[in-house]
Amino acid sequence: MKQLPIPQMSGSLRLSGGHIAYAPAEWSYHKHQHPTYELLYCLEGRATEWINGNSVSLSEGDWLYLNRGVMHSTMTEPDSVFTYFTVHFDMEDEGMKSALSRCSYWCFPDGDTGMAAQLTELRRVLEDGEEADTNLNVRKLRIQSVITTLVAELLLVLEKAEPGPELSGASRKDTELAHTIEKLLTEAVFTSETIESIAKRLYISRNHCTAIFLKVYGIAPHRYLSLMKLKKAKELILRSDDSLESIGERLGFSCASSFSRQFRRWTGHAPAVLRRTDKPRR
Questions:
Q1: Taking every annotated instance into account, which residue ranges of this chain make up the domain HTH araC/xylS-type (predicted)?
Q2: Could you give the C-alpha distances from 70 to 14, 166, 247, 257, 267, in angstroms and in order?
Q3: The CATH number, out of the four listed (3.80.30.20, 1.10.10.60, 3.20.20.100, 3.10.20.740), of the domain defined by the range 172-277
Q4: By CB count within 10 A, which of 163, 192, 210, 261 is most buried?
């Protein structure tokens, strides 16, 4: 029998949230951005996504892919509800990151992709998870399996997509450098490292570091790092009993007041407010 080797892979899929949800008519969600990739599907109704100032209409059967750091907001139609699926994810494999970074966003119908069929399986897994005797580890793997299949189909769609004005146009050299910067930014979340220090480690200027990262990812590196730190800060505040001072230190801040000031700039309120607000649900 001919040997069929399985290649070594490091394309681990990291999920950072998602849901199947319903939004009423005339509902809106404010302008925002994520440090992860986003995939959205319209199950029912209509909505408009405003992406970097551009209007994208979504109706039943439409998929929307958003690259990391892309500013967007959502608004449903006055006479239509909006039932949708969305997931935020990241990849470790540099080749997959490069493929996903080819465009800022891409809207396409389900058509022959078969991606929508995967949502039926996902819904079944999520509903089965509500049963008390469900094995949590098995459920997690099944969810990851479905999302991995969706991402695989998405990569095929992006590969066949016609180049448009939203493509970064970055060279292979620039893309590889941007991926290296992104890796160092991720490692910097729990340190006090700055964009300037990262640039020095790569023997490039801060301006060049910013320009390359912005060209490939569509977001400035300092903004990307801030989003990553904010995400981790919220996770630690809501999911741990660590003191705010300890959380601030873990994220590279010199003291609790410094962390609190930065958190206020990020969100408009102190970290203690988030913890108090969440207290009754914990």
A1: 175-277
A2: 19, 11, 28, 31, 18
A3: 1.10.10.60
A4: 210
